[in-house]
Amino acid sequence: MGTPAAMTTGLVASALVLGGLTQMLPATSSLRWVRNRWMQRLAGVGPPGHVALTFDDGPDPRSTPAFLDTLDSLGWRATFFMLGSMVSACPELATEVSNRGHEVAVHGSQHHNHLRRGPRWVTRDMLAARDALCKLSGTAPRWVRPPYGAMSASTLVAAHRAGLRPVLWTTWGRDWRPQATPRSVVDDVWSTLVPGATVLLHDSDCTSAPGSWKTTLAALPMLAERWADSGLSVGPLSQHGL
Q1: Phi and psi (nearest 5°) for 150?
Q2: Three-class SS of residue 92?
Q3: What is the DSSP letter of 102?
Q4: Does residue 168 contact residue 43 with C-beta atoms inside 8 Å?
Q5: Domains of the chain
Q6: What Å distances lie between residue 135 and 19, 44, 60, 237, CA to CA?
Q7: Active site residues
Q8: What single DSSP character describes residue 192?
Q9: 24 — phi, psi (to 5°)?
């Protein structure tokens, strides 16, 4: 047998390793093909004839109003996963998003990776964003999407405490990249499209390449044409049968 000190050190080290593994285990959901097949509720897989359209990182006064106008022209409603820091900067815009028939959801207060944050920090961050959105929209948000889609044990603990359901995405447009074009956004969405898709796009470039929102905005009418030709309806997560 080792000394008591050595045994204590070993127990502490084992506990740290176990804690780290527990924190990281939900991150297996970051593999899109894994969650689309084995974690469909988390991926946001809904009825095959419906697309849930979601936007991250707003509201942004430079870009979100243009998205609202374009969505109106297309007859679409969407789910906006908002950052509390952006909401604090333009609360009237967050209210307008809700008043114009869209669904508001929680993306956190700060755009920080949950894999690097403990449950106390993530809970405080998530509750602050939830409460701000509830106050401005008059309804309690239902959904949360962690920044970067980085699920952790901290995310799950915080979501449970906040009464929110985590939802990631099945399909994305990779619209945050500096080299993205409207055509590449459409092609990326189309190439990863699955029946009952939840689509990830961005209505702000606050964490993306500068000006990337313009690319996303230009891609929306092109997506509308593709989805209409395929007989797909478009709406928010609340209409996605989850």
Answers
A1: -85, 90
A2: helix
A3: P
A4: yes
A5: 15-239 (3.20.20.370)
A6: 35, 26, 18, 20
A7: 56, 202
A8: T
A9: -85, -25
User: 116: how many CB neighbours lie within 10 A of its CB?
Assistant: 11
Residue 207 DSSP symbol: T
Rounded to a whole number of angstroms, the distance between the first and last alpha carbons of the chain is 54
Q: 3-state DSSP call for residue 28?
A: helix
Whose tokens are 């209505």? That residue is 203
Q: From CA 55, how far away is CA 64, in angstroms rounded?
A: 10
Beta bridge partners of 54: 79, 200
* Distance from C-alpha of 155 to C-alpha of 152, rounded to nearest angstrom: 5
CA–CA separation, 169 vs 88, rounded Å? 26
* Spatial distance between the Cα atoms of 126 and 11, rounded to a whole number of angstroms: 32
Tens digits of pLDDT across the chain (242 residues): 455 444 334 433 333 333 444 454 445 455 665 766 767 898 899 999 999 999 999 999 999 999 999 999 999 999 999 999 999 999 999 999 999 999 999 999 989 887 888 889 999 999 999 999 999 988 899 999 999 998 888 899 999 999 999 999 999 999 999 999 999 999 999 999 999 999 999 999 999 999 999 999 999 999 999 999 999 999 999 999 98
φ/ψ of 241, rounded to 5, equals 70, 25
Q: How far apart are CA 114 and CA 119, in angstroms?
A: 9
Residue 231 φ/ψ region, left for φ over 0, alpha for ψ in the -120 to 50 degree band, beta for the rest = left
Q: Where are the alpha helices (DSSP H) in the chain?
A: 4-24, 32-38, 40-43, 64-74, 84-89, 91-99, 119-137, 153-162, 182-191, 212-229
Q: Look up residue 38 and give its two tokens.
A: 């084995």
Q: Is the pTM of this model over 0.90?
A: no
